[in-house]
């Protein structure tokens, strides 16, 4: 299957490895029944567990590890003795490893893809510098690649940090805080985005014996020892969101998802509430999450501040289902794997939908009034563009550019689709 979809690596006489781009065709299928057996574990949870495990002496057994590239990178890089650390396009891996290597006094160069070099990291670097890390920008100030030249001892125990650019900076600092001799208090300034990810960090730290307090705008982490503990990673709710979208758009659906809990550490489990309004009923049955269809609303008002990774999934469902959307909290989408606002605007237009930026904080989603029979979607090197537009194959013939992008978080996405007859 993998062979068929991804145009393959060809070794040319000069021994260069060339990867050719290709597309995947999805067969229009409007009745879906089956189980997405290959839904991976959460990359967010997994990457936190790997960093904390490394800080606790790498003695814990982590069960149900994700096969996502972002996690496989973290697994390989966290204990790497190489000087050059290439995180590719993995944001959490970049931000968490920067704090980890800086505070553990490791001399490293951290780099990534061309897009990674456009994703800001200055707020984290400033915080680490004020803590005592020597960090240089190798190309552009505020962005990777970074050169880490060691840690000269803790200089402060309180840092003021903006909360509205990326919560990953806050999580990165929280996880290293227990090993700092004086612990660390973070005073969060301005709006706090992606808050459930900060809470997830605190909760996984707690699992490994490190307490913290998150009161109003302060995160307080005392100096303490992490203790090794077995840990099991739950399935990925962000990945599950695409199955909710398939259900919402199909004519008939009965889809089962494994290893998900409705009481999850993952903020993206809020997809249950959102999709309840867009026509999906979700309930547990024999340990699996079962998705079936129900009536949907005509409009959706939603604030994505705390679940930015669901923005694309929901926008596509609304556009295709004739549901008008009034959205806030999409600002951070501009600095993710691609500018997701621009990417959505381009691709939604192909099915007759529009994402209108009313002002800096408000977006209106104008749904399509007439869906085309066949569409080719571009993916902008963004796994979520590929996965968010795939559910349209319930309504039209879909072709998706560079399907291999899904490997970042859900490498077997197309294999799971095959089980439903879509590939
Ligand atoms: O901490 C995490 O695991 C993540 C936090 C979010 O990023 P921001 O905090 O930058 O919004 C989210 O978009 C990303 O996919 C994973
Ligand atoms: C934004 C994402 O990832 P990251 O920031 O970790 O690259 C994502 O998975 O949607």
UniProtKB/TrEMBL annotation:
- Entry keyword set: Amino-acid biosynthesis, Aromatic amino acid biosynthesis, Cytoplasm, Transferase
For the ligand (phosphoenolpyruvate), the binding residues are: 43, 91, 119, 168, 340, 384, 408
The EC number on file is: 2.5.1.19
Q: Which domain of life is it from?
A: Bacteria
Q: Where on this chain does 3-phosphoshikimate bind? A: 43-44, 48, 166-168, 194, 309, 336
Spell out the catalytic residues.
Answer: 309 (proton acceptor)
Q: Which GO terms describe its molecular function?
A: 3-phosphoshikimate 1-carboxyvinyltransferase activity
What residues does the Enolpyruvate transferase domain cover? 31-78, 82-417
Q: Which Pfam families does this chain map to?
A: EPSP_synthase (PF00275)
User: Where does it sit, as one GO cellular component term?
Assistant: cytoplasm
Xref: Gene3D superfamilies: Enolpyruvate transferase domain (3.65.10.10)
* Pathway in which this enzyme or protein is active: Metabolic intermediate biosynthesis; chorismate biosynthesis; chorismate from D-erythrose 4-phosphate and phosphoenolpyruvate: step 6/7
Predominantly, its location class is cytoplasm
**Compartment(s) of residence:** Cytoplasm
The residue range of the signal peptide is none
Reaction(s) catalysed by this chain, per the record, are: 3-phosphoshikimate + phosphoenolpyruvate = 5-O-(1-carboxyvinyl)-3-phosphoshikimate + phosphate
The answer to whether the entry has keyword Magnesium is no
Write out the function statement from the record.
Catalyzes the transfer of the enolpyruvyl moiety of phosphoenolpyruvate (PEP) to the 5-hydroxyl of shikimate-3-phosphate (S3P) to produce enolpyruvyl shikimate-3-phosphate and inorganic phosphate.
Membership in a protein family: Belongs to the EPSP synthase family.
Subunit text: Monomer.
Q: What is this protein called?
A: 3-phosphoshikimate 1-carboxyvinyltransferase
The organism of origin for this protein: Ohtaekwangia koreensis
């Amino acid at each position: 299957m993998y062979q068929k979809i991804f145009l393959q690596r060809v070794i040319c006489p000069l021994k260069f490895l060339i990867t050719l781009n290709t597309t995947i065709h999805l067969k229009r299928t409007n009745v879906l029944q089956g189980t997405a057996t290959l839904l991976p574990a959460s990359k967010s949870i997994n990457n936190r567990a790997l960093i904390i495990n490394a800080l606790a002496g790498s003695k814990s057994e982590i069960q149900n590890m994700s096969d996502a590239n972002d996690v496989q990178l973290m697994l390989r890089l966290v204990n790497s003795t190489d000087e050059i650390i290439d995180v590719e396009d993995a944001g959490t891996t970049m931000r968490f490893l920067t704090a980890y290597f800086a505070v553990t006094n490791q001399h490293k160069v951290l780099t990534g893809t061309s897009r990674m070099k456009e994703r800001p990291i200055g707020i984290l670097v400033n915080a680490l510098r004020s803590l005592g890390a020597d960090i240089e920008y190798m190309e552009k100030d505020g962005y990777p690649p970074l050169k880490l030249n060691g840690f000269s001892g803790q200089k402060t125990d309180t840092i003021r940090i903006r909360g509205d650019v990326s919560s990953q900076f806050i999580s990165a600092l929280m996880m290293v805080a227990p090993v700092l001799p004086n612990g660390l208090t973070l005073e969060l300034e301005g709006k706090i985005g992606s808050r459930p990810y900060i809470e997830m960090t605190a909760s996984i730290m707690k699992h490994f014996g490190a307490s913290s307090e998150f009161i109003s705008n302060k995160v307080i982490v005392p100096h303490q020892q992490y203790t090794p503990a077995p840990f099991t990673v739950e399935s990925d709710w962000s990945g599950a969101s695409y199955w909710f979208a398939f259900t919402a758009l199909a004519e008939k659906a009965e889809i089962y998802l494994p290893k998900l809990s409705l009481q999850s550490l993952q903020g993206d489990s809020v997809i249950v509430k959102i999709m309840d309004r867009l026509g999906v009923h979700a309930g547990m049955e024999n340990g699996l999450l079962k998705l079936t269809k129900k009536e949907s609303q005509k409009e959706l008002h939603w604030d994505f501040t705390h679940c930015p990774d669901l923005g694309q999934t929901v926008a596509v469902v609304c556009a295709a289902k004739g549901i008008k959307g009034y959205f806030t909290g999409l600002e951070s989408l501009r600095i993710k794997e691609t500018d997701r606002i621009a990417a959505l605007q381009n691709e939604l237009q192909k099915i007759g939908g529009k994402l209108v930026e009313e002002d800096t904080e408000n977006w209106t989603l104008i749904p399509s009034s007439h869906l085309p029979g066949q569409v080719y979607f571009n993916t902008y090197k963004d796994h979520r563009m590929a996965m968010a537009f795939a559910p349209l194959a319930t309504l039209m013939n879909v072709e998706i550019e560079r399907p291999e992008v899904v490997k970042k978080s859900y490498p077997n996405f197309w294999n799971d689709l095959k089980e439903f007859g879509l590939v």
